[in-house]
Fold:
Amino acid sequence: MIALGERIFVLFLGIILIIIVSWYLLGSKKSAQAKITSQGKQEIEIIVKGGYNPSIITLEANKPTRLKFNRKEASDCSSRIIFQNLGIAKTLEPYQTTTIDLPALETGEYEFSCAMNMLKGKLMVSSSSSNGEKKLDAQIEKELVSGHHPQRKEDQEHEHEHFHHLKPLKKSELIKKAEIQADGTQQIEILVKNGYHPSIIEVKPGRTSKLIFDRQEDSSCSKQIKFPTLDISSDLPAFEQTEIILPPFKEGIYNYTCSMDMLEGMIRVKSKSEKISEKEYGQSTMIDATIPPISERFYLEGIHCPSCISTIESSVSDIDGIEAVNVNMNTNILAITVNPGFNSTKSVLDAVSKTGYKAVKLETDHPETNEILESTNEERRLKAKELLYIKRITGLALLFSIPVLFNMLYVFFSFPFPDIIIPFIESDFVVLFFSSIIYFIAGKDFHITGLYAFKNRSPNMDSLVSLGTSVAYWYSLIIIIAENFFPQLGITGEIYLDVTAIVISLILLGRYFEIKAKNQTGNAIEKLLNLQAKTAFVIRDGKELEIDINEIKKNEIIVVKPGQKIPTDGVVVEGSSSVDESMITGESIPVSKKVSDKVIGATINQTGTFQFRATKIGKETVLSQIIKMVQEAQTSKAPIQKLTDKVTSWFVPIVINLAILTFIFWFSILENPTLALLNAIGVLIIACPCALGLATPTSIMIATGKGAENGVLVKSASSLEITKKMQILAMDKTGTITYGKPVVTDIILIENTMKENEILLKVASVEARSEHPLAHAIVTYAKDKDMELEKLSSFEAIKGKGVKATIREETILIGNAKLMVMHEIEVNSVLDRFDAFAKSGKTPMYIAINNSLTAIIAVSDTIKGNAIDFIKTLKKMNIEPVMLTGDNSLTAMAIASQVGISKVYSDILPSDKARIISELQAEDKITGMVGDGINDAPALAQADIGLAVGNGTDVAIESADIVLMNGDLMAILTAIKLSKDTITNIKQNLFWAYIYNIGGIPIAAGVFATFGLLLNPIYAGFAMSFSSVSVVLSASRLKFWKLK
Structure:
């Protein structure tokens, strides 16, 4: 029996501990302010040891930031850091400092975490004050919450004393995306009245932008606008619209202001993958500097340690004009980013020399060609190093746990060991010796990391393991010392050193298997890199030379022989062959290549020998872009993971409190101190937050890799999840349902004043200026007849109607009925023949010369062979197919009826597609869009899930969420099935992870003791150690995924 006073004391102490633990671990945390360097850059060091210290960092907006992560541990959990909102992921090498340079960030919160989401931190970015007033971008988040528009000063005539308090604005009124036009440019209208509305514009990189400023006031403040970083300014006449054409942007932030710097606006240039919801606004990314930087590299001689790197980086960072500095210890490469026009070579050489080392500038045409390969090899090396370390420490633990295991077998199970070793086995001091080695050496990382995690107020699994084994070890040590050296104290009890030794050994063994399994799940990028050729045969000075792939220069002529891998992307200039592109497109049938055809690097030449001109090298190639896309997708988070992130943030504090409650219950109420201690330790040991953290990212990593292997490139985890939910799939007819390679089928003469070939020559000469596939068919048809096209005096494309041109005083019109009506040309007499072509699925066009209807020319596009089966499968999946086309309704319905589509939008302009997608979304259905052309880009961007055909335009591909590397419609089904199977796999992983913790913790706590179900901490340790392994293995089933 336990004295009542002792029971009350334990109860009271336990309650106090629960309050302290809850306050300490769940209460608000202090933040640390980054320091401003002499170059105006913010800098802070973050200790990575059992968490991030500091974990909350305060930064100023609009200033670049350097984060120095000093990782003082080798724990698997902290080996990688991810800035989810910024799309940044980087490996942190043990016991070294890793520098991450961030651009100037917007106001908001930017979370970062380890790969398992166990360790977490946050960047709190706020705007600095200027004359007591917050700048515009510092007020955005406040506006969205409070509904107040930022106050702006009136002009100087009012001495800046009057402020306008406007009505609450929605986010859509403050932030607006530019619309992509049919010609690929992007356009937006901005109202200038008491400020700029919208005040924040989102545009995409790489495209010309047209800003239309509609100034509806006569205030002197807004009469001029200027873009400081672009060196552009313009007058804005009152009550007029002014168009300003801006060149293609690089990703980043571009501010614009009025002439008095009173009114402010912002152009945010960002890619499609960085979508921002209203809820997430203020946590978005702001990537590069506004002016494209220049990269330079130097080779460093003599560096051999992290302190060398730190000294050099610090010295070079102090040079004016240098934006970023990074030293790779493995390659001895110093990489710097400098402002354009700044000659950094001498300054860098002098700065390095002052530190006692020597730098040599590397001259290369493309210094970053091998960056992806280098970073992947570095990551591979770190993973191998980590696995070797855990293997050695696990071997040590298992070896020294053998005597402890023998002791347990003899004491608890009376195992018949030989008499000669029994004294050795049953000795408490022998067990203490071996347990101490395991506890202090093999378990060192648990204790150090766990202690720092507590110190950082972000305990993790290591904290639980350390706490549980430490309680068992130090309690046992006290009992042994008291019983053997101070018997007069009367302190006796059970010894639990076996718990300490075997639990640590089992958890290490489980961690070894977990890391080994994890390393095998992320080898998709490695497989892609292995596709790359190592050397290339180039023609230089008339000679054929074999060079390293990284030495290839743009526009060089490269020779490819049968069986060789094509080194880089280019265009065939001589010869022909067939090429296996299955590793890129997933299509197994070889593709024939002739002069002027494009070839893709890493694909395999099969039969012939040919020469091609290198058009893309290094990071520009298709393979490099695929690898980059897969990397970005693998570091992104799916919406399904949000709940898990919330659970893991509360998990460890709750488990610690549950362990305290378990001890109180068994000690104070059931009066069983032995089970109180064992069950409390069991609760600490069996809880496994890592299983929860691994459930989603492991599946995403494998799935995106499998998608790439099958020609389906998923840009983000959220895209992968949304695809499964798709209910409507809208598709452009040309190039999606049809091959997009139409041919001329009929030419009907209306008047006999001209011969067919004469009309064809004039029509082909006009259509040669058009980029439409139908125009290309007519030109090809004429060239096949060896016609020499005529020169045009004028040419005009009339949107949605056709074209108008002049050839030697003759006016030629080619287009639909709308064009004819526009020029008052009567077509009723031939309407039946026109409609007959349309009903048969052909696309007819009227030809008029000098305002006289002359002919009808019909062009037909072939339906893809598997289009009918594709539509049938979509319907079986309960996905409604919708066809969009600019063709007339008769042609559209003819094609639609052949493939089985009932919902058709015809006679639409390119700009109508995005509107139609919006209308479909208004039905509260998840809407997808598949397309391949520039005119599909707005619709792809508008859709919930945009799918771009990989052989389409760059604009369409950039606007999409998923890229289909081949033009096969079945690739869409691959994407849908991959999405469904991946989300199913994630849910299964989460089910087992949750069930394991929900079921295991109560058992360990002794909730089912009345049924004889109690769990020894050793078994709890065994279960916990293999819970993460089981989740990884469950996710690994996706490695065998196939499209059935």
Summary: The two ends are 66 Å apart (CA to CA). The chain has 30 helices and 50 strands. The first helix runs from residue 4 to 26. The mean pLDDT is 79.
